[in-house]
Amino acid sequence: MREDLPSRLDAIIRNALADSLAPGAAVAVGRYGRIVHIRGYGRTDWAPGAPAVTDSTLFDLASLTKVVATTTAAMLLEQEGRLVLDSTVGYYLPRFVVDDAAKRAITVRQLLTHTGGLEAYAPLHVDTLVRGRHNYLARIAERPLRGVPGTATVYSDWDMILTQLVVEHVAQEPLDWFFERRIAAPLELRETVFRPGPHLLPRTAVTADDSLRGGPLRGIVHDGNAWAMGGVSGHAGLFSSVRDLAAFAHMMIADGRFADTTLLRPETVARWTAPQHELSSRALGWDTPSGERSSAGRYFSARSFGHTGFTGTSLWADPEKGVFVVLLTNRVHSLGMTPSARVLDLRAAVADAVQAAVIDAPLVARTNGAVRRVSMNP
Fold first, then answer.
1. Largest CA distance in the chain
2. Are 307 and 67 spatial neighbours (Cβ–Cβ below 8 Å)?
3. Cα–Cα dist 309/235, whole Å
4. Is 248 exposed, middle or buried (0-12, 13-18, 19+ CB in 10 A)?
5. If you count Cβ atoms within 10 Å of the first and of the last residue's Cβ in the chain, which end, N or C, has fewer?
6. What integer pLDDT is reported at residue 376 of this predicted model?
């Protein structure tokens, strides 16, 4: 890869922070099992004297929880034959369908591809009676579907909350316990946790200043529904560092292997990260690049996979070139909260810089679903 990639990334990130996109950020780029660039930028908070961001600063991952924890847990259970994707959700969670026949057709596969007909979101956390996973299941079960299962893609937090509950039913343990025992420990992810303990808080980036929850959120999940569920949810709640996520990304791009650990089978990774329907970019839990305006930029191949998080996080991996990029920010703690479009532009700029730095493969742009060769990188 080009030797000037670090300086290019430095300029992109520092310009974004200087424009008040977020107090801080961290980036990791890897290729073929090696780290190419890893660095922290800015501060963990706007407050004077806040610690500098490093590669071990923890960020609220928001919806990256969906793939790092929930989807990976489901992948493990499915490859062990304990979870059947085409079984109905009601088979695992009878209370979900007890009063609504329309929900009886929803499958686990449809949850993972966001085609189950569920609504995208509702602020159930504002009701003080809705606390804990069992109450959330009851409330989601009460709410009507927004579409016929299997007919449209609607990105929904409820899909991943239900997937969490299915995983917990099959595994017979809470998601955070399963994640720690089956994913974090084998990969030695020592900084990837739900509900960070006191020893991790000094190097956890502040997410936002929330007066309703006692002021600055440090180590407390930003998402209100995940908070009301106790900080452990299938759609949000995980905290991690760019250093740990680099190891996780290495595992995913190496067909489920990292160092001496084999977590997933190659065929499992291939199936779960491939688009599942010609009319949607969604894979199983994961997403794939869609159109020209994508958080993966213009040059990540169609076989790439990744995900983003509302707090300003993202992870993209391109198995065709063996390259990945992780970007963590706390943009919801910006001065007025950075608009999503600006964060998308930053993610795309970082992704494009990484792809343009690959010198042993052509630079190929996606254009309206097609691909167009730009040049052979210098």
1. 62
2. yes
3. 10
4. buried
5. C
6. 43
Alpha-carbon distance 202 to 313, whole Å?
A: 20
Q: How many residues does the chain have?
A: 378
pTM, 2 dp: 0.94
Task: Name which of 21, 2, 3, 51 is nearest 312 in CA terms.
Answer: 21
- Confidence at residue 377, expressed as pLDDT on a 0 to 100 scale: 45
Q: One-letter amino acid identity for 357?
A: A
Determine the pLDDT at residue 252. 98
Burial 160-187 (b: 16+ CB within 10 A, else e): bbbbbbbbbebbeebbbebbbebbbeeb
- Do residues 16 and 346 lie in contact, with contact meaning Cβ atoms separated by under 8 Å? yes
Side-chain half-sphere of 242: how many Cα atoms within 13 Å? 29
Q: Per-residue DSSP letters for 15-84?
A: HHHHTTS-SEEEEEEEETTEEEEEEEEEBSSSSTTPPBP-TT-BEE-TTHHIIIIIIHHHHHHHHTTS--
Dig out the tokens for 149 from the structure.
Answer: 């299962």
Q: What is the pLDDT of residue 123?
A: 83
Of the listed ranges 7-21, 94-108, 110-124, 329-343, the one predicted with least confidence: 329-343
Instruction: Please state whether 230 falls in left (phi above 0), alpha (psi between -120 and 50) or beta.
Output: left
Q: What order do you get walking across the sheet with 59-60 strand by strand?
A: 59-60, 238-240, 193-194
What whole-number distance in Å separates Cα of residue 242 and Cα of residue 298? 23
Q: What is the mean pLDDT of residues 73-97?
A: 95
Question: Cα–chain-centroid distance for residue 153?
Answer: 18
**Nearest to 195, CA basis, from 318, 305, 58, 98:** 58
Two tokens at 160? 């991943």
The 3-state DSSP composition of the chain as helix, strand, coil percent (nearest 5) reads 35, 20, 45
